[in-house]
Amino acid sequence: MVKGQGRFQLDKITRQFADPLWRLNNLYYVENKEGDKVIFKMNTAQEHLYNEMHTMNIVLKARQMGFSTLIDLYILDQIMFNSNMAAGIIADTLTSAQGIFASKVKFPYDNLPGQLRQANPKINDSTTELKLKNDSQIKVGTSHRSGTLQI
Fold first, then answer.
1. Residue 121 backbone dihedrals phi, psi, to 5 degrees
2. Backbone angles phi, psi at 11, to 5 degrees
3. From 24, 72, 84, 121, which residue has the greatest number of CB atoms within 10 Å?
């Protein structure tokens, strides 16, 4: 190994993990339309939404553009890499909320590299909530009336 090469690799990895865009496009597995487990990669519409996001976003939603997947992965990423975050996902029915939660949040979390899951393990895992060791959590339901949500 060339002297200093290990430090270069560590610096590169540190920069990558500090970048939410890199994390979103490299860490999370999803199921594609064929049901195959694949690494999530943003499509053009998702990239546009990500680049234009701010604190209050209105998405005129077209079906099958991947916005729910991106938003749910973004929320998961935020609670994975930030302590004391509370997030909520709302759907029209509890059954829909639980389905979205299972496929868009829990599946990607459960398929993260083992070292990441070990660094921030689940401390509460149900069909409507995922709470991590860093005191961040995601809840799903048909409304969110109590508590303070950051996302």
1. -75, 165
2. -65, -40
3. 72
Q: Tell me how far apart the alpha carbons of residues 57 and 38 are, in angstroms, rounded to a whole number.
A: 27
pLDDT of residue 127: 92
The pLDDT value given to residue 74: 96
Which pTM value belongs to this model? 0.87
Residue type present at position 112: L
Instruction: Indicate the DSSP class of residue 55.
Output: S
30: region left, alpha or beta (phi > 0 left; psi from -120 to 50 alpha): beta
Report the pLDDT value the prediction gives residue 8, as an integer from 0 to 100.
61
How far from 12 is each of 9, 16, 35, 62, 123, CA to CA, in Å? 5, 6, 33, 37, 31
The contacts of residue 86 (CB under 8 Å, 6+ apart) are: 136, 137, 139, 147, 148, 149, 150, 151
Helix (H) or strand (E) run with residue 17 in it: helix 5-18
